[in-house]
Amino acid sequence: MADVTQRAREIRLLILDVDGVLTDGGLYFGPDGEALKRFHVHDGAGIKAVQQAGVQVAWVSARDSAAVRSRAAELEVAHVVEGERDKGAALERAWPGTLDWRPRRSLRSVTTWPICPCCARPDWPSPWPTPVPRSEQRPIW
Questions:
Q1: Percentage of residues of the chain with pLDDT beyond 90
Q2: Total domain count, the chain
Q3: What is the pLDDT of residue 73?
C-alpha cells in the first residue's frame, strides 16, 4: 500500500480520453446533428479533487464537441484537445514544455489505443486496464 501511496503522490498530470472514459461511451445526436454527451457528476468531483491536490488535468478527444468544451470550462480543465486523432502529439504541440510527461509523473486513461499510441505507451502507468495489447499493458494501481 505504501508503494501505491507514494506513486500517487508523484503524479502531476492526469490525461483522460473523453468518449468512453469521461462519458458512458454512447454516441448521441440531437435533431440538428449536434453531439450530446452524458458526463457523470462523480467524475467531475474526482477531477476537482485531483486539481486541488496540484495535479494538472488534460482531456483529449478525436471528436470536436461543444459539450466537451462546456464541461471542461465548468470544471476549469485548461488543457483540452479536440478533433485530433493523434492525441498525444496534439497535447505536446498545444502545450510544449508545460505538461509533465515523465512516466512516473503522469497517469493516463484512454480508450482508443490504436488511434492514440502515444497515450498508450507501455511505460506510462495506467490506473486500470485499457485496450492496450496484453503484452504491453502494465496497470500499476
A1: 20
A2: 1
A3: 97
